[in-house]
Amino acid sequence: MHRIFQEDPGVFARTFRTLGLPFPEPVAVSLMPTDLTETKPLERRVDTLLRIDAGRNGSYLLAVEAQGKKDRDKPGNWAYYVAHLYAKYRLPPVLLVTCQDKNTAEWAAETVAIGPAAWPTLSLRPLVLGPHNMPVITDPEAAARDIPLATLSAVTHGKDPNAGVILKALAAALQTVDDDTAMIFAELTELGLGSAPAAKIWRDLMSVDLSFFRSETSQRLRSEARAIGRAEGRAEGRAEDILRILAKRGIAVPEQVRERIASCADLDVLGEWFDRSLTVEAAEELFAAAEG
Length: 292
Hints:
Blueprint: H1 3-7, H2 10-18, E1 48-53, E2 59-67, H3 74-89, E3 93-99, H4 102-108, E4 112-114, E5 122-124, E6 127-129, H5 140-145, H6 147-156, H7 163-174, H8 179-193, H9 198-208, H10 216-248, H11 255-263, H12 267-277, H13 288-291
Parallel strand pairs: 2-3, 3-6
Antiparallel strand pairs: 1-2, 4-5
Helix pairs in contact: 6-7, 6-8, 7-9, 8-9, 10-11, 10-12
């Protein structure tokens, strides 16, 4: 029967007009390849895919996508994911999209009708979690009662002006659980926040009390803190040496020169000033090369 449409494509519109569906008469028709096999592999990955078994209510697939901004290509990709999952697993799929800003969430929640207006063949209806419907958890006790939900709340509201309050509640809640659990959800929070300004707030919170947090993040923070501390200590020591040498040589050091030496954190520059402090006739000559 399908070959009839190859011979007379217009029969499609004429047939459905008789059924009360106003498909327009075609003005041009192109015969397309019928083989839908991907000759060149195209990588398509959903962010997270779960099979949910609901007992007597059956099973379904939950495909989770994190969306940071509007993307006109995404609805087509999501439709492909849903159709492919149903064809492969024969289980009803549910698409869940998580967003960190309201505009993106509202865009993602729109029903996308794929097909002509007269008869959409496929309707895509994602479930969306975003700042518009995700609860804000700022109470540490409430966060401790459901740490996964509190983590999702923190990530979802990562761009909120009050993100710091939400993150503080989660940080306090993580101290009520075992180290392994705290590590998992602390790292999930950091990954979920991505490059949002709240990510720095979270790293600062984690650096305050890392006794329970032995993750790679904590180790990096400790290492960075130690390195910064050592560098600052060496810089302070070298600045004191410069000032001591100038004093021993009887060279007056104006206050502005003293402040410039004391505030310098560049060990290479301080090394040059140290060498010059042995021979200069005036304190200002320490900076002669840099200013010249």
